[in-house]
Amino acid sequence: MAAASGRSIRLAVVGASGTVGSQIAELIGARDFSYAEVKLFGAEAGTSTTVESGGRTLTVAPLESPADLAGFDLVLLAVPETVAAEITVARPGPLLVDLSAATRPPSDAAPVVAPGLTPRERLLDLRRLNLLAVPHPAAQVIATVLSAIGVHAGFAGANVMLGASAGGREAVSELFNQSADLLNARLTLEEDKTQIAFNVFLPARGRELAGAIAAQAAALMGTAPQLAVQVVQVPAFHGSAVALFVPTADMREWPLRLRAAPGVILVESDEASGFVDAIGQEAVLVRMGVPVAGGTALWCTFDSARIAALSALWIAETLAFAA
């Protein structure tokens, strides 16, 4: 990255009109941080729209080719894997931050990094690769909570529950349409389609995603317990959750550790804590279960899009200050 001085980088966001990309655009306007230049691109050529950022309406320009990104210092790729792959293979010059890597195991070529888990010095060293990856928000949540409570060995289980927004705006629209059709007794599905409305199920490629999440969490922690992860799709429009199970009843220091952990809000009241409570939050909401002889459960709810967007901007801001 070749920014002239701190806070002077030229930043581009590809996929700025998508679920995560629009969150990045919103946060750029809301956070007290300035860039020499910010440009928003769509995920496809020939498409142009607008997004809101800090009370302003910004134009999202079409990305005609990876060469359009050559003049920037850092590019955030909030796009599907196929689009991101075309750009990362072309290597137009800037440091690329690939958010589509959330569904893949980590690699040496594109290491996963996240705030509160990746030391600043390591991030600065890794920028020489010119390609970094943002982990799946569930992997970041698992690593954050386990690190906070000091569980780095043994075994831990995680049931990851993903709302529709984890699949982007098309998935949210599909859930809305199916829900409306089902309530009006007119839902008909093609043979290759799954009912997602009023249904909880193991998604296609769920086992593959579970493996990627476990590998990413372990990579972020460095020293991690053996992780058994299962992914399920739930009929919520927004928000996600992880039900963590740690086979130990010794949780006396956990409340203090969780209160002090960055990116964590410990829920200590008896009020309900659901998906909707996490929407718009910049941290994971954690409620501790009652310990039993076999272990302890933790209920963790979070806003997937918000966490992914914040992680991407953390990379941009950290590198800008160090430029």
Write a short abstract of this structure.
The protein is α/β, with parallel strands linked by helices. The chain is 32% helix and 22% strand. The chain is built from nine helices and 13 strands.
Question: Secondary-structure map with pairings?
Answer:
Layout: E1 10-14, H1 19-30, E2 37-41, E3 49-53, E4 56-61, E5 74-77, H2 81-90, E6 95-98, H3 120-126, E7 131-133, H4 137-149, E8 155-162, H5 169-183, H6 206-221, E9 226-233, E10 240-246, H7 254-260, E11 264-266, H8 275-278, E12 284-288, E13 296-302, H9 304-322
Parallel strand pairs: 1-2, 1-5, 2-4, 5-6, 6-7, 8-9, 11-12
Antiparallel strand pairs: 3-4, 8-10, 10-13, 12-13
List keywords for this structure.
Rossmann fold; 323 residues; disordered N terminus; 13 strands
Structural features, described:
- The chain is of the alpha/beta class.
- It has two domains: 10-135 and 308-322, Rossmann fold (3-Layer(aba) Sandwich), CATH 3.40.50.720; 138-304, 2-Layer Sandwich (Dihydrodipicolinate Reductase, domain 2), CATH 3.30.360.10.
- Helix content is 32%, strand content 22%.
- The strands form two sheets. It has a seven-stranded mixed beta sheet, with helices on one face.
- Helix 4 packs across helix 6 (206-221).
- The radius of gyration is 20 Å and the shape is globular.
- 43% of the residues are buried.
